[in-house]
Structures are given as C-alpha cells and as structure tokens.
Amino acid sequence: GSQRGVAYPAGGEIPRGSQLKRTPSELLLERKEFGSVQGREHKLQITSFLDLAQYSNHATSVVPVDQPLFRVTPSVVAFSDFEGLQVYEAVVTLRNQDNVSRRVKVYPPDSPFFELAPGRGRGRSRSSSGASGPGDKVPPGMEVSYIVRFKPDARIDYSYDLVVVTEREKFSVPVRASGGSALLDFPDVIDFGDDCAVGNKCERNVYVRNIGDRATKFVLTTGAPFSVIHPDGYLAEGQACQVAVFFTPQRAQLYQCELHLKYGELEAVATLRGGAQNADVSLSHSVLVVEDTYVGLDSQGVVTIRNDSDVPVDFSWRLFPSVDAELEHRTALLGHLKQEEADETLYMQQDMLSEDSSDGSDSDGERRRVRRESKISSGLQRKYGNIAKAVQEDPMLFRDSIFAISPLSGRVWSHSQITCACSFAPKDALVYSCSAYLSCVGQEERAPLMLKGLGIGPKATFSYDELDVGSVFLESAHRYEVQLLNQGDIEVNFKLTPRDTTFGRRFEFTPTQGTIAVGGQCEIVVDFHPADLGQFHEVFEWTLKGSATAVTLAFRGVSIQPTFTFDTSLINFGSVSFGFLNSRMLTLTNDSQVPCVYKLHIPGDDLAPNNEFSIIPSRGTLLPLCSQRVQVDFVSLHEKKYDVRLAVDLEGVGGELLTIPIYAQCAVPSVSFEPHGTLSYGDVFIRYPFHQSLYLHNTSPLPAKFEVMPQEDKSRAEIEPDQWTGTVPPCASHVITVTLTAHTSGQLRIPMYVKIHGRSVPFPLVLTANSVGPRVEVDPPMLDWGPIKCLEPLTRHVKLTNNSCIDASIRAFMNERKSLWTVHPKIIHLSPQETLQLAVTLDINETCNMQDTLNLIVQEGEDLTVQVKGKGVGTPVKCDLDIDYIDFGTIFTTRTESREIVIRNYGQAARRINWLRDKEKDKAKDKKEESGDKKGGKKKNGDDDTPPPPVFRVEPEFVVMEPRSAYRFTVMAMSPAAGELEEVLVCNETLDKGGGVGKPIFRPKLRANFVAPQLRLSTRDINFVFLWAKDRPVAPLTEPLSLNNVGPLDIRFKVEVQYPFSVDVDEGVIPSNGSQDILIDFDPAFKSDRKSCVVRQKLNIQYDEHPAVNTVELVGKVVWPNLELDPTKIDFGTVINETTRRLEVKMTNPTAVPVAYQWCFTAPAGKAEEASNPRTPAALPSPGDTKMSGFARSTVGGFSSLSGANGYSEDGDSRHAGRGAVAAIGSSLGATSSELMLA
Q: Fewer C-beta neighbours within 10 Å, C or N terminus of the chain?
C-alpha cells in the first residue's frame, strides 16, 4: 500500500535529517533563513521503488535511479506570513525528465489543513479526488501542474509530505508552513576563567532576549560542576531576562560542559568553560597538645585558620580525611541498618506465624493476618526509613567524647583568619589522642589536625595499709575502723572491688563506695565473721574513678575452733524388748569463748522413719560457757546386740569432733491366743455389728507389742477390733473385742491375722457367722373397696411391721402396669421394730369390677403380696371448670360473646355427648303458649310461626368422645334485643357401644345482660359562618363536640367526615360514664374562586362492637364580597354610526359584608392587546344594596360605561362585541369578579 503523511505543527526544520548540534547563533541564523527555503533546491526523498516493467513497455530510462522520473518544482512547497481561517494556494509542477511518456499520480492529502486540486489545463472530470488518473501519460519534457490549498486554523507551524507515485518509484514532496516562531538570543560560550577556587561557587549572569515573533517557554540543562538556579522561564515577544549560571569545581583542573537551551521544538547547545585551583588556606598547627588536665575538669587549646586568598572560604571540621571515607562509612551504616531491618522483619514474621496457628485458618483469620502483616511492614519501613534519612543527612562533622572543637563550621573572609577553640575533658588518667580534618572551600584535600592530651586522676590513701587481727574464734564477730584520705586537688569517687575468696567473703565494709571532697577523709567500718579454720591474708582493692591505679587495704590472722564436753563417758540401755521406747539423758557443755552451732547424730543409724535412735534436740546453738541437756530415745527394731556411737558436728568447723559409745541388747517375748484358730458369731443380721472376745497371754518377763493386721477383702463382711495395736504386760493377759459386720447374707468365713512385734509370721484366726436380712410382716393380706364413684379417689391402708434389729428397705408397686390403684409411699424404710400404715388409693375410671395385686419387695428379705379389688359407679366424664353457672356479664346486643369449656373423658370406653335445652322449661313454655292461643283465638294472618333463635347455644351440640380424650366446646350468647336473659342447658352422656338411655351429666345455668351503645352527643348539628373582612385572615374555624358514654360498657368509636370539615380525633375509646371532646375544623379557603356558598355534610360516629351509627349535621357558610348583576348580558342591537345608546345594569350585594367594586373590560378571544381600563373603585356599603350602572354603545369608540371606561373595538367592522367585568375588591389574596356580556 501507499505511505501517506499526516499534517502536524512542525518546528520548521527544513529539511528533516539527522539532528545536529547547533549553537544559539547558528540556530538563529537558520531560522532567519527559513523564509528563503522555497528558492533553494531540495533533493526529493525516494521512499520505495516499483517494477518498471510491470507498469510500462519501456523498461529502461535515461533518468538516474537516485532521481525521480518527474522533476518537482518547487522541491519544497512553503507557506509563510499567513493568518488563521484563511485559504492560501501554491502551484506544484511535475516535469517528465525521461525520453518516453510516463504516468504519474499524486495522492490527495488526508489532512484537514491541505487540499490538492488540478492545475491549469487539467479538467475536473479526470478524477473526483483531484489525483491523476492511472491512464494519464505525460510526454517527454512536458509537465503537469497541481494546486496545493492551505487552510490553517491558527498561526502556527504545519508540516505534510505529498506522496507522488510514478511507474518506477514512490517519493514525497515536503509541504511546510511557518507561522512564525520564537527566536532566543543567547551567547555561544560562557567562560568562568581559570582562577576559580576549588569548592567555591562562581557566578555568571547571562542575558536572554526573545527576538522572534512568538512567546515561548525555555529550559536550560547542564551537568556538574555547572548548574543553573532557575533553569526554566517564559519570554513574551520582545522581552528579555537574566539567567544565573554557577560553576562549583571540586578538583583543581579545567572543566568544559555543554549547556542545552530548549524552547518550543528548537534546541541549541552553548559551551561552558572554567578552571579551578587551590586557595591559599593554612592551619597554624598540625599537632595541638593540650596541657595536662585533671579527670572531671577541662582545658582548652587554640588553632588558627588563615585565608590568604581573594575569596571568602567556608570551612568545617570533619571526622573523616576524605569524602570517599565519609561515603564508605555512610554505606557501611546503611548496610548494618538494612541487616537490622531484615532481622527484625524475620522475627516479626515468626511471631505472626505463632499467632496465626492459634487464630485458625478461616477467612477472618486470614484477613487479620494480612492486616497485621501490612501494619507491621509499614511500621518497620517507616522506622528504618527515618533512620536511613538521618544517616543520609548527617554532615559527618567532627565529634569525640574527649575532645571538642568550637566552632565546627564557619566562614573565613579573604585575607583574614579565625581562631578555633579545642576543649579537652579527660575521663580517666590516660594519654588521649585524636585526629580532626579541616574541610574548606578552596582546598581539594582536607588538612589533618592531631589533638593530644594527658588526664590526671584523683589521689587517695588509707590511714594504714595492713592490719594483723591475730587469733579469732570461728563464727566470732569483729569490727575495725580505717580512714581513706583525699591527697589530691580534685574530689575522689571510690568504690570497693568485691573479693570472692574463702575469708574475703566474710569481710563487710561500710560504705563500699562514696565521694571525698578535696582535703577530706572518709571513715570505713570493717566487720569480720570467720566461718572457716586456718590462716588468712586478704588484700582488698579500692578503685578511684578516673585513676588507672587502685589503693589497697590488707588483713591477716588465724581462725581457730571452739571446745566442748559431755558429762558422761557412755550410754548403756541394757536388755530391752522389741519395739519399746527407752530414753537416757546427758549434758553437752561449750567450754570456749564463742558460740557454736552443733549437730548430734549416730553414724550408721537409718534416716526417719526407719531410724531406731532419736536425739532431742538434735541441733542448736551453744553460747560461750553454757550447757544443753540432751535426751537420747531408742526403739529397737531388730533382735540383736547394739554397739554404736553418739557424734557431735560443729557447723562450719567439722564433723564428729566428739563421740561417746551406746550399748543395748534386744529380745522378743512369746504370746499365746484363746480361743485358738476359730472365733464363732452364730446368726447375725446383715450390716448389724456383733461382738466376740479374743484373749492374748504373755508368758515372758518382757512386755510384748501386738498389731491386728488390716483386712484385705471387705466385700462380704468387715471386722473391727477395739484395739488395732497394744501392749501385753510381762507374765499377764490382754483382751481384744472383735466386732463383725456382715455385708452380704449367707454363711461367712472371714480370716483375721494378729502380729506380735518381732515375729515374722502373724497368728491366723477364722471368724464364722450366718448372715440374715430383715423380717417384715403385713396385715391384712387382702383389701376390698366395694362400690366407688368414678374419678373420686378412695384410700385404704395396709399395716407393715419390721420385726428385726436392722433397718428394712421395702419397694411397693402394683402388679398391673396401668393399674387404677396407687401406693404411697412406694419406697419404704422401716427402723427396727417400727410399724407403718401403707396408703393404697383406688381412682376408678370406668363403671365395672376391677382387681389387682400389691407387691412388697423387701430388700435382702422375703417378698410379700396383698390382693385388692373394687367396682366403679357414676360417670368418668368431667369438666375442668365449674360449669353449673356461666355468667356472660353485660354485653352489646347483636354481638356474639363466647366462652370455652373443656370436657374430658377419663373412661376406657367411647361416649356420645349431646347438648339439649332443659325439657321441663320447654314444656312449661309450650303450655303457656297453648293457653295464650286458647284465650286469644286463632293467630292473625301474616304472623310468623318460626320460633326466635336461641339466645344461648353450644357448638358442637353432638360429639363422640374417644377414651381418655378431651373436647373443647364453645358456649355462645347473642340477642338482638336488650334485656337480662337466663337459660338452662342439659348435657347427656350415652355409651357409644351398647347404647342405652342417656343420662344427664351437666346442667349449667346461663345468664347474660344485653345492652345497646348509649352515647350522648352534646349537639346534633354544628354551624360554621365565615364573614370576610379586610383585616381578618382566612383561617379554619373550630367548634367543639362532646361525646358522653352513659352506658355500662366501654365504647370504641371511629369518626368519619369529609373536607372542608376535619376532626382532631379519628378514633378512640370512651370508658363507662366517661366523655371525649372532639374539635371540628372548617376550612373557608376551600373555595378558591372566592364565591360565597353553603356546604352541608354529615359527621358519622361508628362503633367497633355494634352496627349503630350516630350522625351530626355540619353546615359551613362562607361569605365573600360578591355582586349579582341583572341582567348578565346586554345586547345593544344595531346602533347607528357616531351615535350613542345607553342601557342600565342592576347590581345587588347579596352578602352580609360591604362590597367595593370597579369596572373593567376584557378583550375578546384572540386579541393580544389589553382592553381593560379600570376606573377608581366604587362601593356598595350596605348588604343588600342595589345600584344602577349605565353602559353606552358608541359606533366611534366602542363600548364605554358611564364612568368613561374604554371599550375595545375591531377596526373595519360595524359589529362590536365585548365583555365587561366588575371586580369586588376583597382580601390581599385576590378579588372576585362578575362578568357581563356586551354585544
């Protein structure tokens, strides 16, 4: 396909080729020469080649390949000095350069700003689009012309390329339109010279002027070390401004850089040049040694910065020797910061994972996790972002904990100097050194300054260096005093260094730290409590704050143990019996001058509770030269000879420092039992204790201990001796009472074991017994209830007696699952020899014979039975409520009032229930009616034989009730007439199967008092009258209506009324003997035509419980100032030209208000001109007054009233018609009018 260009505003660059860098003066010269671009020859650009043999028989051409077959004149179509919304034309000719005829075609532009039309000699019929047709051939040397029309919208640059196609190639012809452009006058070179100081900002002001014919924005861009403070601006046509260009070199060398000037779509490049050299700035010292200074004080030294250059110099003291070192340190800090951020992020993520495991994996937990993670991430980013920003903005000025320089930064003016103070504040008695670097403008390298100083510490000494305390007893208390003296020129802050040795821990110093003023001293108290034996030599160091050396205080001496003795040389218990307690007393005496903490024990004796020896007290503290009585208890647990020692240990001194021997001989006595082997109890009641005696005989000279072994199996019976353990005296006997309690019935054989202490095998016994349960008797064995009414429970009693010495538990129940008999209580507990009357109740629910069996289950005894029987009479049908008398109270007539009763059939057979009116009452009523008929004779014609509907009735009247069922009956009362009425209904019962004569079971008496609503109205009619007055607003009128309820029942009512009447209460409730006030409103503004009228309506009061309706007549009268005209039409008939005819109209005021009126004429339909000419108003002051008004018909001027009101006439017509209106002036809301037809 063919390539087509698109028109767009262009920068005016002709031709468009490679972008060349042009200086501002070259760009200015080129733009000035743009107007002569049409006269210059421009080589056309061939975009593509075609196959010549495919389009022509002449496959060769004499025209070179790099030239088109047709020569285009001009080679560039240019437009200049044009205005918007005008049309301009240019002629383009294409000459055939070949020696044969060739075809050529020019595509029409697809731009709205350019059009292509045939030139001279080319008809419009060739192509409707204006392009050459495919059959057009141009002979050799001939040319074809086209007209290029240019229709600009505004005075801006436009550009388009016409596409021309020949038989061999396709090329484009540029079309350019220059609407004028901005031209900036700017220097090509800006030179800052070669003597700029390193780091100093040099400034050059450049004058920029717009010499073009359009306003423009411009932008200046360059690179370091050159800069522009305000790189952009705006210049109108003919305006100029100054631009400041700065040169800030960082090295002592020559610099050259490009300055790009862009405005519109034009760009020029200027050159920036400059050289830099180091300024003559020097330091007075390279090493500053500050005089020696005490710790805690400070001293100063000075250093001078001298500026011998011609420019002012800004300086600052830095921590690093170069910018690269600063950058490296800052990079390292940022790296550590990122690592800390990553570590903290990982820790928070692990913490969130542990919380997520407890939150669960539901959607709510996931949302909470995402929100928590986002919050933590944003918080960490903000935190570390602020720290990183602080690191980036840190100027890295000099800082040190010992040395300080003031000022850290400043300015040194040319050929002047500034003095900086260097402070030295040592913290310890050491030699300090530090380096600071002077960074100043004008110097490429930073000048180092070495700072040095010596710190002098505090000086203190003790009143003595070493104390020999001699011999001291173990655990004795000693106190010493020593003074610490300040021998220096500054205060001393001292502190004790703890010494963790055997004897060092026993020394206590008060105080351990403090401050001593210059020339002062501090008294230190030393307490010593030796806890170990031996010699000691302890040296304690006291550190002085700010001093590298410490002062020492030494103590030496020897610690010795205390001495003590017993008042006996041995303890002899002699011969003892196995397991018996034996005690001996002795005295322990402290013979030393110090208290001692002792412990008494017997080596080889077991620990409690298996120990045989017990010492009281076994430990304690003996004061100097004091004694302690000690008791030694011995309980032998082995049959052997004892030879042991009592040892004394001193706490903190040593063990078994003193011992005495202990001797003893242990033997086991012999014991026999009576009876031997078996202990018999005979018959026993279950769970009742029975007792037997067991005799123990000791035949040896030593006392014996016995123990009854615990019983292992207590499921069948339990034994309990009166003594589980005891002692049998030497050559004597002892009795044990053994209690047996059986848990199960039957024969029992219970093993029992008695152990003699010292014997390995216990003595076995067998306890035998026969276990039985309780014995219960019942009286009588049978119960007969005889005839009993249905559903009327009757209770009889059975006597139960417990003839045993244990409690009896009895469970009573009937044999049948759904028995008519009930037993109370069902669970019986009888104490020994107790008697109980058991209640048995019969609640029969059917009229037939019934029998059952009462079962008495005696726990662990013999079971008993009692036979029971009875016969039911009456009926099993009952009602939940008492329905002998049902009172409906006072109710409205015509309203049905109902009561619900539930009747239940408790029997075992279905029954038919039928409701009837009382027959006796009906018969009496029928007899009364028959006697009345006999006295009065026959019934009159037209009398209704249909009896009135019953006042009381039951629904449903007949129903079959299934066994053990219930039915809900509705008793209703309704009467159209008022009065108090009573009636008796009968309910009959008949068996569903078996039939028979029914029997009445209920005979309720019904009563109701029927009344009509008794509402008394305060009035039956209400009149509203509204008389218009000039100063009276048109507002609703209100009248009250009182409703009084004089009846015995509350009345619920609704009020209905139509507009223009309304009420404030639509519905309500009036209690008995109460009242309700209603406000009735009448709106006189409902007549929008302001015509007087009378409205009549009814206010209806309806009742919710009764169909009766009460009405109130409502009359509303509205009186506006109106007039009545007689006649309402005036016909003048035929009137001769230029004559006048007069007729009169009678006006009457029918209202009760005076009327002010005025006449006006209205135009006939279709006339747009105003035809009324109102006159000054007149008045009919009195109601009912009459006034005559005259109208004249003039053939010259139309109609007129006697008062001279102008009429309306139609020109050129002898017939006239009009309409007159008299307006009654009313309120400010408007006026009413009456019309009069004039013909």
A: N
